[in-house]
From TrEMBL:
CDD domains, A to Z: HATPase_MutL-MLH-PMS-like (cd16926), MutL_Trans (cd00782)
One GO location term (cellular component): mismatch repair complex
Biological processes per GO annotation: mismatch repair
Cited PROSITE patterns: DNA_MISMATCH_REPAIR_1 (PS00058)
PANTHER family according to UniProt: DNA MISMATCH REPAIR PROTEIN MLH, PMS, MUTL, DNA MISMATCH REPAIR PROTEIN MLH1
Keyword Transmembrane: no
The protein's name in its UniProt record: DNA mismatch repair protein MutL
Length: 631
């Protein structure tokens, strides 16, 4: 007997379903697109448990005839095309006739439908591809699909789904794109009995964008409307000030279908190239109307990938149009007057160990702790302003070099006591042991060069310390320690900063709220899509809280698994980098001295969180060789 056999129908359907139904969002996409093709002007999507236990989709479209219902659940049965030639002129979102058969093969499906001219509707049930019942019932015009227990008969597929929150996030993103692709349709999205999205269906795209992204985004949009032979482009692009950290805010639609196209993406990003920073991506919502003969949508099962017959001409059209829009507008960011933010006391959680002494800040206008300290523990911080002084300056003025003997002894003794009590773990990178408790008192701070590097002489060597990398490392280790030990210190800000978030950002913030709190952020729901940022990590005075939170959310948009410690480390490294004293910023010798002392306490003081060295050295012998004093 031969080894090759024809598979049975049930197995064939389950295999085919894997190409169309990858996850709950695939079911929602196919059924909502069917509703739009049926002429619906209102669509309601309700899910529970991320769509795994229940998906209910209701529309007011044309409905289905009773005689067509059973036929609709057969593979490759459709009302949208009759032959291969129709693919060249297809305008509907669906056309393959695979969606209903694929969904019914891996779920328990119930259908309620009624046409406008029928006296009664019809209720149809099919589980795992097997018909269960069909009966006449009373129901409103339109169609309702109820999908229960998705992948109940394919447990391997269900096992590889992500968490319910993540799967619900995928569906939320899909509903946002669908609402932008068809502003003329009113969409309602309900997740676990909570309304998450409701659009008016008035046909105005900007109203949709305001509803989804909020006031700050919609106030910085530029309208786009242009056309040439065979193509028309409409929509909105964002001013460079609202560029984001990932491509999730680039949305492109062709003939009402959300698509991903390297040609369009490249054209849009190239148009912004001279307007944005590196690793920033534009905000763009663009609709294209193309002759169906100019593109092929039958490329991928999801129909999100398309091919263009004249891709180069399309690229040129998009690039030139967007450049004209960007160059034709005033893009200077406006600084709006606001009430000065007042700092209030740090609110630490109870600690089992003493709080470490904060590093001396080197940015002007910083918040000072109200507690008084002795001269051996702190140095008064002056206001720092960049000035065009000579590159190298002496450590202290001549009058300051020789302090009274009693004061010097007290200072050194107090310093020794404070460093011994902390008992930091130390490593030696250099044979001379620059960053050790014993060597600390024998450092000779020469001065600052290029307003960035500090020169220290010690034991016949010249050490050069990068002030930004050093400060970044100090902040990073403090933040990581507090995060790991769940002992954040929060600096309350007054008045709080109001954040208007998109649906995706709200989901991310709620998903990672515990991790944000462990970092030291404090949020409070302000109603709707607004959140009040009431506190920030206490060691990050110099950074702008709103921008930092948005950047963190952008970076987290690609992290759909539970946040791991290494991922948190990347975010904290970013926070430390942005808050650290910068290069080309002059700080005082006392501040540099305090910074070096804090660096001494670090577990690994020799590199910043991104791997750049904090210290390099040159021996006296090497220096004399350079001057040919030694041959």
């Amino acid at each position: 007997m031969g080894k090759i056999q024809v598979l049975d129908g049930e197995t064939i359907n389950k295999i085919a379903a894997g190409e169309v139904v990858e996850r709950p969002s695939s079911v929602v996409k196919e059924l909502v697109e069917n509703a739009i093709d049926a002429g619906a002007t209102a669509v309601t999507v309700e899910i529970q448990d991320g769509g795994t236990s229940l998906i209910r989709i209701t529309d007011n479209g044309s409905g289905m005839e009773k005689d067509d219902i059973s036929m609709a659940f057969l593979r490759h049965s459709t009302s949208k095309i009759r032959s291969a030639q129709d693919l060249q002129t297809i305008h509907s979102l669906g056309f393959r006739g695979e969606a209903l058969s694929s969904i019914s093969a891996v779920a328990q499906v119930e259908l309620l439908t009624k046409t406008a001219h029928a006296m009664t509707g019809c209720r149809y049930q099919i589980n795992g591809g097997v018909e269960k019942s069909m009966e006449d019932i009373g129901c409103p015009d339109g169609t309702t699909f109820i999908v229960r227990q998705l992948f109940y008969n394919t447990p391997a597929r269900r096992k590889f789904l992500k968490s319910n929150i993540t799967e619900a996030g995928y569906i939320s993103d899909l509903m946002v794109r669908l609402s932008m692709s068809h502003p003329e349709v009113s969409f309602k999205f309900i997740n676990n009995r909570q309304n998450r999205l409701h659009t008016s269906g008035n046909g105005r795209l900007k109203d949709i964008l305001y509803h989804i992204y909020g006031r700050d985004i919609s106030a910085n949009l530029l309208p786009v409307e242009a056309g040439q032979k065979g193509v028309r482009m409409t929509g909105f692009i964002g001013k460079p000030i609202i560029c984001r950290g990932n491509r999730s805010y680039e949305n492109y639609f062709i003939n009402g279908r959300y698509i991903k196209s390297p040609v369009i993406t490249q054209a849009v990003e190239d148009a912004y190239k001279t307007f944005t920073m590196v690793h920033k991506f534009p905000f763009a919502i663009l609709h294209f109307t193309l002759d169906t003969a100019e593109l092929d949508v039958n490329v991928h099962p999801t129909k999100m990938e398309v091919r263009f017959s004249h891709g180069q001409e399309l690229y040129k059209f998009i690039y030139e149009t967007l450049r004209q829009v960007l160059f034709g507008r005033e893009l200077i960011p406006e600084v709006k007057p606001s009430e000065p933010k007042q700092a209030v006391a740090v609110v630490p959680k109870p600690l089992s160990k003493p709080i470490e002494r904060p590093v001396i800040r080197s940015t002007s206008g910083l918040i000072e702790h109200p507690t008084e300290r002795s001269a051996a523990q702190t140095v008064t911080q002056p206001k720092v302003t960049p000035t065009p002084k000579p590159d190298i300056r002496p450590e202290l003025k001549e009058t300051e070099e020789k302090l009274p003997e009693p004061f010097e002894k007290k200072r050194l003794e107090a310093l020794r006591v404070s460093t011994v009590e902390d008992k930091p773990q130390q490593y030696e990178l250099f044979e001379t042991g620059l960053l050790t408790k014993e060597a600390r008192v024998r450092h000779k701070l020469i001065g600052q060069v290029f307003d960035t590097y500090w020169i220290v002489e010690y034991d016949g060597k010249l050490f050069i310390i990068d002030q930004h990398a050093a400060h970044e490392k100090v902040l990073y280790e403090k933040l990581m320690k507090r995060f790991k030990e769940n002992q954040p210190m929060t600096q309350l800000i007054q008045p709080p900063i109001i954040l208007t978030l998109s649906m995706t950002e709200m989901d991310l913030l709620n998903r990672y709220m515990d991790q944000f709190k462990k970092m030291g952020f404090e949020f409070e729901s302000f109603g709707g899509k607004e959140y009040a940022l009431r506190g920030v990590p206490s060691d990050l005075y110099g950074f702008t809280g709103k921008e930092m939170v948005i950047e963190l959310l952008d970076e987290l948009a690609g992290e759909f698994e539970r946040m791991r410690t290494d991922v948190i480390g990347d975010k904290i490294a970013t926070m430390a980098c942005k808050a650290a004293v910068k290069g080309n910023m002059r700080i005082s010798s006392k501040e540099a001295d305090a910074l070096i002392e804090e660096l001494l306490r670090a577990e690994n003081p020799y590199t910043c969180p991104h791997g750049r060295p904090t210290i390099i050295s040159m021996t006296k012998t090497e220096l004399e060789k350079r001057f040919k004093r030694i041959v």
